[in-house]
Write a structure and sequence with these properties.
There is one protein chain. The chain is α/β, with parallel strands linked by helices and 400 residues long. The protein is built from 17 helices and ten strands. The strands form two sheets. It has a five-stranded parallel sheet. The longest helix is centred in the last third of the chain and has 25 residues. Bound molecules: adenosine monophosphate (AMP). The site of adenosine monophosphate has 17 residues, from helix 2 and helix 3. The site of adenosine monophosphate (AMP) has 17 residues, from helix 2 and helix 3.
């Protein structure tokens, strides 16, 4: 089965609740899906549905579940892929009872990559075995679940110890495993879980790419957005100028290239952006303006962000009709803000053409992959800023 690509750039919140049977995964899931607007995936529930509907998968799983064993990874991958495929626009997923084996941890990695997202945290709820057994026996009085009886419970716990518990090391290595004690009251455990999620959300960077033709206002909007949301403004043009001014080694190279009328190669731009990503402390994210300009640069950005472990959150394009662009650039050329590249009509037209030929395909690529939010750039600076801000906040509203 092939997953449809997620047709939006999503700041998803993906959580896995981990723990032995009776740890309270189902109980806390109810609150979390409501609070964070998540799509709930319980492999146990999905399997019980398959059994109820007497499907082929259900028939294969029935006896294993009744004995307290683990259903095969082949069956699990089928039901979980189907559910995720059908809900690509979810705000995020809450996994309950998955992954339960090392293989399933890899399966989850693959599924998240397909959705251009990742698991934010695995929250492990720990309870002593006697507490598990007592809770499940009590649940068995009303749940109607044939596997909530003492013999099967013991087997389920044995399976947990042998096959599921080792999965924790996979997430410890990734640094996203949070172990909580679950033999406390429900509100106490809930508070611990919410604290973990809050701190994870705060760690996340907001990475925005701002596109637009020259004259669309992307520079002034980008700087204003950076200031408003505590983002690092990454504009390659000024970055190159800064290096020349500071007379760094790279600056000297750039100066020589400029003097010979040559373009600055991507190798230099990559180094500068990489430095910026690595040296920026205490920023809430990055806003890229004037980069990526070409398809090659879009792959570079994808690679740099992947290396930095912080995916794109939002791609915005400010749209302004061509005649208005020319009018604005021509007006600017008569002021002190005149850029060396808009001193003549021929130069202005050349820049617009350059954008059309090289950058529009990049926007199209991103639109296909993640969705690009288009904003009408006609209006006052404040009016457009309000629209851009709305889009940025929109991405976060369900998560904060
Ligand atoms: P649960 O509702 O999560 O307690 O699951 C009930 C039963 O379904 C388990 O004891 C297993 O037999 C089966 N099961 C649920 N999720 C998985 C999984 N991820 N991998 C293998 N078996 C599972």
């Amino acid at each position: 089965m092939i997953l449809v690509s997620c047709n939006k750039i999503s700041i998803m919140l993906n959580i896995a609740l981990f723990g032995p049977p009776g740890a309270g995964k189902g109980t806390h899931s109810e609150f979390l899906i409501e609070e964070y607007n998540l799509f709930y995936i319980s492999t146990g529930d999905l399997l019980r549905k398959e059994i109820k509907n007497q499907t082929k998968l259900g028939n294969q799983a029935q006896n294993i579940i009744a004995s307290g064993g683990l259903v095969s990874d082949e069956i699990i991958v089928q039901i979980i892929e189907k559910t995720i495929t059908e809900n690509p626009d979810a705000n995020g997923f809450l996994f309950d009872g998955f992954p339960r084996t090392y293989i399933q941890a890899y399966i989850l990695e693959g599924l998240m990559i397909k959705l251009n997202t990742s698991l934010n945290c695995l929250i492990s709820l720990d309870v002593p075995e006697v507490v598990s057994i007592n809770r499940l026996l009590k649940r068995g009085q009303t749940s109607g679940r044939s596997d909530d009886n003492e013999t099967v419970i013991k087997n389920r716990l044995k399976e947990y110890q042998e096959k599921t518990l080792p999965v924790l090391s996979f997430y410890k290595d990734k640094g996203i495993c949070f172990e909580l004690q679950s033999d406390k009251t429900i509100p106490e455990v809930r508070e611990d879980i919410v604290n973990v999620i809050k701190s994870e959300l705060n760690k996340r960077l907001l990475n925005i790419v701002l596109f637009g033709y020259p004259g669309s206002g992307r520079g002034s909007q980008g700087r204003a957005i950076a200031q408003k949301y505590g983002l690092e403004y990454v504009a390659t043009g000024p970055m190159l100028g800064e290096e020349i001014e500071k007379r760094t080694e790279i600056g000297k190279e750039i100066k020589a290239l400029y003097e010979n009328g040559q373009l600055v190669p991507d190798e230099i731009v990559v180094q500068l952006i990489e430095q910026k990503l690595e040296n920026s402390e205490n920023v809430k994210g990055f806003i890229f303006k004037g980069f990526p300009r070409t398809l090659v640069q879009s792959y570079i950005l994808d690679g740099l962000l992947k290396k930095h472990g912080s995916p794109l959150s939002k791609i915005i394009e400010i749209e302004v009709p061509t005649l208005e662009l020319i009018r604005r650039l021509d007006e600017r050329s008569k002021t002190d803000n005149c850029m060396p590249y808009d001193t003549s009509t021929a130069k202005i037209v050349q820049r617009l053409q350059e954008h059309e030929q090289k950058t529009v395909p990049v926007i199209e690529k991103y639109n296909e992959l993640h969705g690009v939010v288009k904003i009408d750039g006609v209006g006052t600076f404040e009016e457009v800023l309000k629209k851009v801000s709305f889009e940025i906040e929109n991405g976060f509203k369900n998560l904060k």
